[in-house]
Amino acid sequence: VNKYTVRQNNIPPGPTQEHNRVSGALFHCVISEGKPLKDEDVLHQLPVGTTATFYFRDLGSQISWRTVFLTECIGPLFIYLMFYFRVPFIYAPKYDFTTSKHWVVHLACLCHSFHYVKRILETLFVHRFCQGTMPLRNIFKNCLYYWCFAVWMAYYINHPLYTPPYYGEQQVKTALGIFVFCQLGSFSIHITLRNLKPPGSKTKKIPYPTKNPFTWIFALVSCPNYTYEVGSWLGFTVMTQCVPVAFFTIVGFIQMTMWAKGKHRSYLREFKEYPTLRSPILPFVL
């Protein structure tokens, strides 16, 4: 069993299968209503008879989550910089390797690069991944999402005809404040979640606020890392006043809301004492 844990899950029969029928000395094993067995489960400790049938599902070629995260982030980082430096064949030839006259364009590049460099460093040194993997084919879908949006955003923000925000410097400074605040908050949440799980441990715990003020949002939200992520892109949207960025923020918010709701339900299911005041992603709202 352990030999194939990277590519296979042990799937006991679901509740719709004839698991109550006895065929000679063969019993069909049902564990937790057909849920996959965990890697750390010990066979002789499972509530089965002397003989049991295990069902295996081939998951196909797999790739580690760390590799997925790095690939997702490295692409947008370099794609955006190509547009920022206006490499040939993107805009008209006369604009090759020229720079924008608007300071907000340079600030936007700095913020965008900082965001993805931060995510890369967190992937390498902060996040603790379990042994789980994802299908190799999914990386193309994930990269298509991040990379294509990076092209769309970078093209318009760094375009020679780009128009600065309507309310000028005040709008940009306010948006920058939102962006920086949320980036600090995101990092604080990731550190808190890292400290919650010792190296090699798969034990889940309820995250609580710490002395760090950025973590106090845990009192109201189950997944504040998503809250801060949405806030960062909201700030970037206001800063650039660019439609592609706004669209990326909306799509990202919808996706992260789905993830947050799933994690929130998981917390409620696993911990009877889980704080009832918490919402998935937005306090008291969603």
Question: Can you describe what's shown?
Answer:
The chain has helices at about 65-85, 105-125, 140-155, 170-195, 225-240, 245-270; strands spanning about 10, 25-30, 50-55, 55-60, 60-65, 135. With about 290 residues, it is mainly α. It folds into three domains: about 1-60, no CATH class; about 60-165, no CATH class; about 170-285, no CATH class. The protein has a two-stranded antiparallel sheet. The protein has a two-stranded parallel sheet with strand order 2-3. The radius of gyration is 24 Å and the shape is globular. The chain starts with 7 loop residues before the first strand and ends in a 16-residue tail after the last helix.
One letter per element, helices H and strands E, the order comes to EEEEEHHEHHHH
End-to-end C-alpha gap:
41 Å
Give the beta-strand count: 6
How big is the Rg?
Answer: 24 Å
Helix content, binned percent: 40-55%
Number of helices: 6
Low-confidence stretches: 1-33
Q: In one word, what is the shape?
A: globular
Q: How do the strands line up in the largest sheet? A: 1-4
* Overall number of structural domains: 3
Strand content: 5-15%
Judged by helices, strands and strand pairing, the structural class is mainly alpha
Characterize the largest beta sheet: strand count, sense, and whether it forms a barrel.
2 strands, antiparallel
On the 0-100 scale, what is the average pLDDT?
86
